[in-house]
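Notebook p. 47: complex prediction with zinc ion.
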Amino acid sequence: MIKPAEFIHPEDAAALRQLESIPGFPALVKKVLALGFEKLKYGFNMATAIRLSPTQLPHLYNHLPPICEKLGIEEPEFYLQMDPVPNAWTFGDTKIFITITSGLVEVLDDEELDAVIAHECGHILCRHVLYHSIAQYILAGADTLGILGSLTVPVQYAILYWSRKSELSCDRCASITTSPDAVARVMARLAGGPKSITENLNMQEWAGQADQYDHIKNDGLWNKTLQLAITLGQSHPFSAVRVREILKWGQSQQYVSLMQNLNAEASGKRCPECSLPVSTDWAYCKNCGTKL
Ligand SMILES: [Zn+2]
Ligand SMILES: [Zn+2]
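Predicted complex, structure tokens below:
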């Protein structure tokens, strides 16, 4: 069982606080729900995508249950959609579902697919899905229900800003069930193409592009404005930035001790003194110092 507080990215936490402090925001969220937007999208998905199950393409479905178990979340519905563009998303509030595209399955190996599914499950664990669904609606740009009229442009930007930052937390969640390397490899496939092309990518060099991007972005007001305009329509942070952030997190003390604790929990062994979980390779209990 993993708690969001153990891995949430600080920029996500800050953006969420800002978003929830916008006057009228909770009322707006309720309004969106009341319009039946969720049901609309759920129904569309049900009619057009293939629902995966133990008896429907089990080699794909079987990725999901162990991840949900590890994260301690209820299993969402899981769908496959024919679309050559590699993509995955989570949607809904009362009925949450994850959809992956055929293009995604084609471009990723098993561990990379696990990373994407764990990323999506991270959105569920962190309770991002409702606000995310609204962000997707804004990005779709087709406001046939007219709900965005009540949502001023700056508020739309605030939602999209938070939505992008929340992706960084979910990359971290993915790295907990797989590894930071696996998450970085997913980024490589999505940015540069299949394994046959991106297998030997120099990750550090690529992550360095994020620093170069920061230089360009921060070089004078004109560039900042220009970059801001480019970022506004993006659903996710740029891939080089995500790679840099996940590799950095993989080196952090927070990640190392979180993984130690999870491994200790998985070992099933407990300290005879403080009865907290301990790992089989510990000489001393990390919680109370008792010799094991
Ligand atoms: Zn995401
Ligand atoms: Zn102990």
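Notes: The mean pLDDT is 88. The longest strand covers residues 77-81.
Next step: compare against the earlier run before touching the bench.
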